[in-house]
Write a structure and sequence with these properties.
Blueprint lengths: L2 E6 L3 H12 L4 E5 L12 E2 L1 H9 L6 H4 L5 E6 L2 E7 L12 E2 L2 H14 L5 E2 L3 E6 L4 E5 L4 E9 L6 H6 L5 E15 L8 E5 L6 E5 L5 E6 L10 H16 L6 E16 L4 E2 L2 E3 L5 E2 L7 H20 L9 H25 L4 H14 L3 H12 L28 E3 L5 E3 H4 L4 E4 L3 H14 L3 E6 L8 E3 L5 E4 L2 H11 L2
Length: about 500
């Protein structure tokens, strides 16, 4: 074998998956058909859940400091503010910050972490053919070379070569016509850089989000723009024309543009996340509208969920049936994200008089309510995600229940040093508890998982049962050696 796992695609999902596998001691190769890393990106928001994943990968350092803390969205009709949403901690125990930062910078930090772990992406060498058998996958690359790996994961986006070669269907529909996207400088000093501004207009919505380095990201729905293959300058000029018209701000001028693009919104979901020894993650498995910043966030969650499961299978500690729980846990979430982002798109592009009336006079006013804003923060953060309904979860007993997320608790190591739970979940499991049952649970976990388990004690008296916590921060089970052994025997069979 050239590697335990071949990761196809060096975007945020592929890089996160590779880092996670390496943390677990699994060898990887990462290939990408692009000649060089991307320097521009459509995704530019990382919610708290995404920051938590990056933290557990030890890839968060520096990103929060260079991000923009734009935590409000104000919607206007001309110069009249109609709605303001304030994002914040939804009370779910996280120290990870939501960040306005480009996907390109997240990828750069992940590449640095990957290099620390001893691997670099192989650029300009995409996948051409793939054949799998009972022991692995043989991949033929663009340069004519072959790679033999035990498993292959497609993180290669909406046009995934991996998905096509595996014969996995990707049904879906087009949700909207064209959006303009422009990164550039604005002359209007009155715009508030502490948050995003949006304008509703009969011709289509327009939004302006502050970006690091003094830049602004502008996005506008523009079904009337009919140029089939416009260049960046044509897109920028179109944005310059519609910007004052839709905002009502005559002094709002678009200056130097660093990037411009055009896109339509599609909604697609792969029929399956696995075909034998081939798996999918991120946009290769699901694609949806950008509203709500759910794309990169969902993909990072895919990568973390898959990494620990695939590592256990590669290392012979689990049967490959464990990989079926990846789809069982992650695909329902993708389905919910597709529904939510599609609904948000339809609201934003409402074209009929009735649709605009409902949006402008009803929905926008409803979203000014404090409890709706808390719900919005809670929903978009994905800190609520639970797998208790999945094959590894449980629906009974006191919370947290098996499958629930466990917050980033303050705790201490056996030597008394203070730490955080997520700082310890870097390619490892944790047993958290302060009684004799916790010690027996720890020993039971070590018998099945080896040395990839840490023993932690809560800094505040907790009582109750010890918690066996998965590497992705979700609860596996509660109890002593009997409960831990039973859960691991069932999950890893």
């Amino acid at each position: 074998m050239d590697a335990d796992v071949l990761v196809v695609g060096a975007g945020p999902v592929g890089l996160a998956l590779a880092c996670g596998l390496l943390q677990h001691g699994v060898s990887v190769r990462v290939i990408d058909r692009a000649a060089l890393p991307a320097t521009t990106s459509r995704a530019n928001f990382v919610h708290a859940r995404g920051s938590e994943v990056l933290d557990r990968l030890d890839a968060l350092d520096g990103l929060a400091q260079e991000s923009v803390r734009a935590m409000t969205i104000t919607t206007y009709a001309g110069d009249r503010p109609m709605m303001r949403i304030r994002f914040g901690d939804p009370g779910l125990g996280t120290a990870a910050p939501p960040m306005v930062i480009s996907q390109a910078r997240v990828e750069a930090r992940l590449r640095e972490r990957l290099a620390d772990l001893g691997v670099r992406p192989e650029w300009g060498n995409g996948l051409v053919e793939a054949h799998q058998d009972g022991t692995g996958v043989t991949a033929v690359l663009a340069d004519g070379s072959t790679v033999r790996a035990g498993w292959m994961v497609g993180c290669d986006g909406t046009g995934s070569a991996v998905r096509k070669l595996a014969g996995i269907g990707f049904p879906g529909v087009k949700v909207s016509e064209r959006f303009l996207l422009v990164d550039g400088h604005l002359d209007e000093p009155a715009l508030d850089r502490s948050g995003t501004s949006g304008w509703v207009h009969a011709d289509g919505m327009l939004g302006a989000m502050p970006m690091p380095g003094g830049l602004w990201r502008l996005i506008a729905y523009d079904a009337a723009f009919q140029d089939d293959k416009p260049g960046e300058e044509q897109i920028a000029e179109r944005m310059r024309r519609i910007l004052p018209a839709r905002t009502g701000l005559s002094g709002l001028n678009l200056g130097e543009v660093t990037w411009a693009s055009l896109f339509s919104v599609h909604r697609r979901l792969a029929d399956a996340y696995r075909a034998g020894r081939v798996l999918l993650a991120g946009d290769a498995a699901h694609v949806h509208a950008p509203f709500g910043g759910q794309g990169m966030l969902t993909g990072l969650g895919d990568a973390e969920n898959l990494a620990w499961k695939l590592a256990l299978v590669v290392q012979g500690r689990a049967g490959d049936a464990l990989l079926d729980t990846y789809q069982a846990e992650r695909r329902p979430l993708a389905t919910a994200v597709l529904r939510g982002s599609t609904a948000a798109t339809k609201v934003n592009i409402a074209g009929s008089p009735l649709g605009r009336l409902l949006r402008d006079q009803v929905l926008l006013r409803v979203f000014n309510r404090a409890w709706i804003q808390r719900w919005t923060t809670y929903t978009t953060s994905q800190l609520w995600v639970s797998y208790r309904r999945g094959p590894l979860g449980g629906r009974r007993g006191a919370k947290p229940r098996p499958g629930d997320r466990v917050g980033d608790l303050a705790c201490e190591r056996p030597d008394g040093d203070r730490t955080r739970l997520y700082a310890e979940l870097r390619g490892t499991w944790a047993v958290l508890g302060d009684g004799p049952g916790a010690e027996s649970a720890f020993e039971a976990a070590r018998r099945r998982l080896g040395d990839r388990v840490v023993r932690l004690r809560p800094t505040a008296p907790a009582g109750g049962l010890a918690l066996l916590i998965r590497p992705d921060g979700h609860l596996a089970c509660k109890g002593g050696s009997t409960e831990v052994t039973r859960w691991l025997d069932g999950a890893l069979a």
